[in-house]
What we know:
By secondary structure, the chain is an alpha/beta fold. 32% of the residues lie in helices and 15% in strands. The protein has one domain (6-248): Rossmann fold, CATH 3.40.50.1820. Helix 2 links the parallel strand 4 and strand 5.
Amino acid sequence: MTRVPRQDWIRRFVPRPAARLRLVCFPHAGGAASAFHGWAELLPEWIELVAVQYPGRQDRYGEPIPAGIPELAEEILRGAEDITGFDRPTAFFGHSMGALVAFEVARRLQWRTSSPPAALFVSACKAPPARTPRGLTFEENEIRDYLRHLGGSGAALLENDELWEFAFPVICGDLRMAEAYRYAPGAPLTCPVVSIAGDRDPAVTPDDAALWKDCTTGEADARVLRGGHFYFEESLSGLVEILTEGLTRLVPH
Length: 253
C-alpha cells in the first residue's frame, strides 16, 4: 500500500514543540480530529495534544474507509510516524470506537518498537475481550435511532437532511468497522490504562469500562464522570483533570 504522508493523519491545534509529553487523541465513530479542537488550550503547557484524522471525513472526504479497525491501526502506524514517541513520552486517548483504534495501535507499537505508549486512556468503550456484536443491520433508520440513543450534540445532524446525507456514509463505514471488530488474544499492554465512563451512558456502563484492567499488566484505574456517552460535553473539566493527573506521573519534574 502506498504510504500516506503523515501530515494527512495528524492535526495540531496548538503546536507546542517544547512540550515534554504528547497526547494523541483518536475520535469516535463518525468523528474527526476537530472533535478535540479546543481541548489543547485546557491542558498544561507541557502537554502537546494532537489528533488523528481518519480517512473519509472533512479534508480527507472521499478517501476510502478501511475494512476494519486492525487495518486502520496499520494505516495509522504507516502514515503517522510522530505518534511513536521516540522524541518524548507519548500517551493515547481514544473515545468510543477511537478507544479500540488507540488500543490496536498501542498493541502494535509494543510488539514492534522499543517505544510503546506511556499510557492509554480509553473513554466510553467496552474492553475488547468483553465486546459482543450489537447486531446492527446498517439500515439508515436503524443508524439514526442508534445515534439518538447515544445522544450528544452531534445527534443534531439527524434533523438536518443535507448534513445527514453527507455524514451517513462515514458514520455507517465507521460503525461497520466497530461492529466487525473481534479481539485477537495476545500479550497484554504493559503501560498504565485509565478507563473513563459516563454515569448515564446507555451503551457502556462503568462496570463495562472497568474491565479494561484485564488488558494490561501495568497500573489500571477506572473513573466515572457525570454524563452520557458523550459525557465530556458536560464534564470536560473533569476529564482534563483526569488526563493531567495521569500524565503528570509520566514526566520528570
